[in-house]
Amino acid sequence: MDTLASTTSAPRPPLVKGLPVIGSTLNMGKDPGRFFVDCYRQYGPIYRVKVFGNELTVIAGVEAATFMNTREGKECLRSREAWEGMVQEMGMTKNLVSVDGDVHKDLRAAQKWGYSREAMVGRYNKVLDITSEAIARDWRVGTEIPVVRTMQHLVIEQLGTILTGRAPREYVDDIRTTIMYMLNVLVVRMRPKFFLKLPEYRRAKARMMQLGRDMVADYRANQATRQVTPENRTLIDDIMQAHERDPELIPEQDVPWMIAGPYVAGLDTVAMTTSSCLYMILKHPDIHRRMREEVDALYSQGPVDEATYMRSLPITNNVILEAMRLYPIAVAQVRVANKDFVFAGHQLKERELIYLGTAVPHFQHEFYDNPEKVDIDRFDKPRAEHLKSGAYSPYGRGPHTCLGKSMAEVILVMTMSKLIYELDMELPTPDYELKTKAVPTPGPALSFQIKVKGRRH
Ligand code: HEM
Q: Which residues have C-beta within 8 Å of that of residue 322, sequence separation ≥ 6?
């Protein structure tokens, strides 16, 4: 790839043709994933887009996925400006997503274990039980379920159980509201700043901060008597120990929001992915039948064995992989140019906003056979289409790649397998087509509902 870290006489990236004044705002706002794919076909791996009166540069396709993992990519891109509004609103000095280089490396290392699958060891059956209880309570037979919102409730309970051994049920709406407002106003910037003054948000944020502070206070109250073991150690232990070791890296004011980090990172990502996945399953009776056979065989045997759990559900795993290919929640990773550089023969300027469209290959026939078609067998060997270099990036690329990936994989499998095992569900009509939304996280529209026809188990 022709990437030079310098200013040259190289031309600026081509500007995508759009409407006068509003440019590509409508097309990009409607379906950003599809828009980036169409532009890639027409303009290649780098182009400029006019949205909301501003211009931003898009680097897309396998070129973007590859670039992000290279040393040059790490030198040319930074995250701070993309996230700093949210960091300030939280009153933090810094946050994992907003820092780069050595500080990012140290912060990531401090929390690596707490976000890993190992941090769930000894808790699989508890998380499965919580999932079943939430399904029995919130997915009532004979009712129509607003899928996204109900999934959001479920994932907060699951993350709370993993993080503290307890589901923070009384805070579910506060967490949902706080994160929605912050993402909409400060990250995707699709809502005006004054939204952050609305009483609904202010109340929810104050309660969410209180939840973070309470978790810190609980930790400190039990610190003297509590024996940390591999079974009860959590992300909170990692963060508190790192804070005590190096208060410059993690100052006191950052601790409560860092502890609430999994809710911020996991709420919408998991809720949108599981909602899309449920649509895909109910839309394809053959996939639904294959999943039922698989989950019935596993759960009819009682509590699961953690060592073999993920391996026992290969079809469920493939269904989730396919949902994440077709409905990626991160159609682009947002960065700023850290310096002037040339990419694919085009000049980029320091501080300009760059969208990295790493999910573009998900929809290209160069990587996937019949990419528009739902095909859960494309991930099995010998095809393994997603393993082609740069072809599959649902968890992002580069140094900020999802830290919760392996934990998310287990939560996704637990959620989908339990829903299919326990409930008989259907779409509102057999020819129902999913409506999607683009912000704050791409995924099914909040109006997406399914019918619960009965309980299977
Ligand atoms: C379907 C599930 C999920 C998907 C698709 C997903 C996707 C992503 C993506 C694309 C990024 C990179 C963002 C960027 O570069 O700007 C990211 C970062 C991150 N994710 Fe996830 N995520 C998921 C679930 C989770 C969960 C459940 C957790 C926590 C328990 C989590 C924790 C994180 C963290 C901490 C980061 C920031 C990493 C860093 O900045 O170094 N994610 N995720």
A: 280, 374, 375, 376, 378, 379
Ligand 1 site, residue 329, Cβ cutoff 6 A:
yes
Structure tokens at 388: 């082609």
Ligand 1 binding pocket includes 162 (Cβ within 6 Å) = no
Question: pTM of the prediction?
Answer: 0.95
For ligand 1, say whether the CB of 356 is within 6 Å of any of its atoms. Answer: no
- How far is Cα of residue 5 from the mean position of the Cα atoms in its chain? 31
- Residue 90 per-residue DSSP state: T
What spacing in Å lies between the alpha carbon of 61 and ligand 1's midpoint? 20
Task: Quick: pLDDT tens for 186-220.
Answer: 987 778 899 999 999 999 999 999 999 999 999 99
Q: Is 120 in the pocket of ligand 1 (CB under 6 A)?
A: no
Residue-wise DSSP of 155-196: HHHHHHHHHHSS--GGGHHHHHHHHHHHIIIIIS--S-GGGG
From ligand 1's centre to the CA of 430, what distance in Å?
Answer: 34
In short, whether 258's Cβ falls inside 6 Å of ligand 1 is no
For residue 51, what are the β-bridge partners? 54
Per-position b or e across 365-376, b if 16+ CB within 10 A of its CB: eebbeebeebbb
Q: What is the pLDDT of residues 357-383, one digit of tens each?
A: 999 999 999 999 999 999 999 999 999
Give, using CA atoms, the residue closest to atom 42 of ligand 1: 404
